[in-house]
Amino acid sequence: MYDAMIFSRLDLPRVIAAWSAGRAVYVPTTAGGNTTLAPFDPERGLSLDYGNTTLSPKAFLFPQTECLLRFATCGQDAALAVAEPQGTQKRLLFGIRPCDAAAFALLDAVFCQDAHSTDPSWVSRRERTILVGLGCNTPDAACFCTAMGSGPHHPRGLDILAADLGDEVLLTPVTDRGRALLAEAASIVPGIPARGERGGTALGRAATLRINAEAVMARSPFAGLTLEAVARRSQRTVHALGIWPAIAETCLNCGVCTFACPTCHCFDIQDETKGASGRRVRNWDTCMSWLFTAHASGHNPRPTKVERVRQRFMHKFKYMPMNLGGRPGCVGCGRCVRQCPVNIDIREVLRTLDMACRAAPPSGAPRAEADS
Amino acid sequence: MNEKNPYLPYPVRLVEARFDTPDTSLRTLRVAFEDPAHAAGFAYRPGQFAELSVTGRGEAPIGIASSPTEGDELLFTVSRMGVVTTALHELSPGDRLGVRGPLGNGYPLADLAGKDIVVVAGGYAVTTLRSAMIWLLDPANRARYGRITFVYGARSPELLLYPETWRQWMGRSDVDCRVTIDNACEGWDCLVGFVPRVLKELAPSPEGAAALVCGPPAMIRFSLPVFEDLGWQPEQIFMSLENRMKCGIGICGRCNVGNRYVCKHGPVFSKAELDRLPAEY
Fold it and tell me: What is the value of ipTM here, to two decimals?
């Protein structure tokens, strides 16, 4: 931690301006009730007064629509596909929240599984994108990151973690890339290494802000959520629970949860042609859609919204933990809680799921069951 | 698989195509790689599949019907169902298309060395089992396996794929080849009756044996109890699944059965593994 730096809050725009040399920098910007990460504009200044971006920042690494291949429709090279270069722009995202950075770290394990299953676009964008996160001092009522293995000042997935101390900002490097970036800023803007008494005070204030934020979350009625009982039950048992029809009952299958979610990553691939050329694009998709799993024959393994809603929650709370060493496929950002038009609250689903798993009759040895 | 970009298909040319059935719903395509280096990169095993790509229309996952022991050309039998498969039916010899793969795990033939193999196929699901049979009967592999039995059925004679191939197997002494149709018809010289009944009469012993099963749901539903009655264990039976797919490499999220992706962890699963997964396929 000794290599953390303290900057005056008033100097923060200059730090970001220094980082803007050689890369595109995006900062939180609120307009019309929505917060986005927008290109940094020195004229407009920088506000740290925002909860979180309305939509997750996943589009920076996994665009909503992205060209994978191009091809000609006529001539010598007709039907010959050529890969489209991806993610060539160097970027820095300032002010993403620790939950969203944790989501990127989680998606690394999805997009880069092994030599056969590595997504070149994700890799390219991830390598070129630096993440400077801002710890949450005032988590809101829908946040539940602490229940999902993250926290309001958690550094996972970030290059630098920033803490807003009011008059000052503490920047703590997390990766070597973050360390280099901090040195880059300190060569232009005067900063104070967080050492000695001065540093101790700043580190202490940051720790107090973190503890206060965690204490706010600990008072939430959902603070004690746990996946332990779900982990002990087999996927067949969880799948067969009687809770799913009631959970799905009000769902409209609108897909806003998957759209706003920082960890939802399912995509579709479609071809488009215009005149002599065409392209193969991938688009965000949603497991809430009937078409998502419909076979060409008409058969559909998830024919009604009950199967589809169950799939979304089981993917996050059963299948991903099984495949990713216990890590849930949710980071507790709360966007789906805030944005669901029929108020389906994923935390209530989790609590129902937990209680049903505790009550389910044991089927075989617990250990063997959890592994299957 | 293309090492740099798993979404980039290898360009291939259609060498030969023929409609397999009088209703033209099935068409077998033989394709050749434009670049011999790509053929080397496409090292596949029986039971794997490929995404066949028709630019402007899209991709469809199709089981590989050829065996790697047959050379560099690939064989696919395509049922005309949707947009892409219709496009595949409209291609002419010489046309370019794309092949992305090989994808999936394939049949665990290497693990089954030393065993008797019972192959059970129904309808046009025989494609990847043709691949497995050709591979098993290849002189380089045949001696490593015990008895090989091939049971294949379809509604009527003209719906049976690859007749010249299995007729040839009927003439061999090292394979028990039993081909059946649902109802008797004039000129038919093989068995009559549903696959599960033929299987029951055959009564293959589970001792040191494994079964590869692929066919329509009804055939599977009635064949599995036959195996069970004969004392077969779920670990000895391997089945190939289908689900809607896009990426083919376990990322895009739609073909999962429980925590397993049919495209990556399958399409071949043992019955033992399927018994542990939610039956969502």
Answer: 0.93
